[in-house]
Amino acid sequence: MASALQVVSSRSALLILREAFYGTTRFDDFAERVGISQPVAAARLRELVGDGLLEREPYREPGQRTRMAYRLTAKGAELLPVLVALMQWGDRWLAPDGPPVVLKHRGCGETVRAELRCDAGHATAAADCELAVGPGRRQATGQRIGPVPPEE
Amino acid sequence: MASALQVVSSRSALLILREAFYGTTRFDDFAERVGISQPVAAARLRELVGDGLLEREPYREPGQRTRMAYRLTAKGAELLPVLVALMQWGDRWLAPDGPPVVLKHRGCGETVRAELRCDAGHATAAADCELAVGPGRRQATGQRIGPVPPEE
DNA sequence: CAGTATCCCAAGCGATACTG
DNA sequence: CAGTATCGCTTGGGATACTG
Question: Is the pLDDT of residue A1 over 60?
Fold first, then answer.
């Protein structure tokens, strides 16, 4: 997870990825819609391309100059659950006027949520989780996860 | 989502929250296990408490001085899906030796994953999502989500 | 153990100006 | 339109030293 954060820790990186999910592909649009300056957009896009989350693709419309499009790669696209989970949390705890946008399942029309679920299909809350150790970390197995009961 | 990032954008903040989920409560442990210096730990913990993700709780063991414990609040605990999604992505794309730790469902024992699912219960991929607008943002509804296929 | 006080460095970011 | 070049501010973060 630490390494994931290394790649994606900065605010502008996540916002650029969000825009990419929204369908933005052009340099100027990224800068404008994310609300960052062009130098920052350039640096961030270069990093994201370097990390393999986006790819540059030259294309040209007839009669136009060649342009560069930035597209999500598979690696980048699989960050969607992270973004959705983050958005959901923000909607729940930080949005005074309700969610600004919601995701719908195409066709079925129901709202899409990020949730925790175990491989047996049970929806899972934080309190129902425990840690198991893979190779590389020394820590007690069966460690309880999650907080104390809600306050306020 | 932008506001969520405002709260949680920094690398050390997320790592501290991860430690909190692992069960860490003491100042020194946060600093040491996250691998940050004490001043940084102090600053980050203060911010997280200020944002209502953690709460300080004085406690004393018999015969000891009063100590401060940092615990997740409900607001903080609900970030778990974000962390899990991030961890999963890191395991998938950045971990050379497989996942360092995995979450198990307490009792059932199966691995816990973060996933996208619509309210009708369908598992949902990025390509199956579309945007709908809530109050506050004016944008086209039905916006496609996910990587745009290369146009020829 | 649980911090605070200082100092310093590097990275994120914005503003402005310039280029193909 | 799609960037690069420079400058300078602000914040994250490490090191070291000090306090209750």
Answer: yes
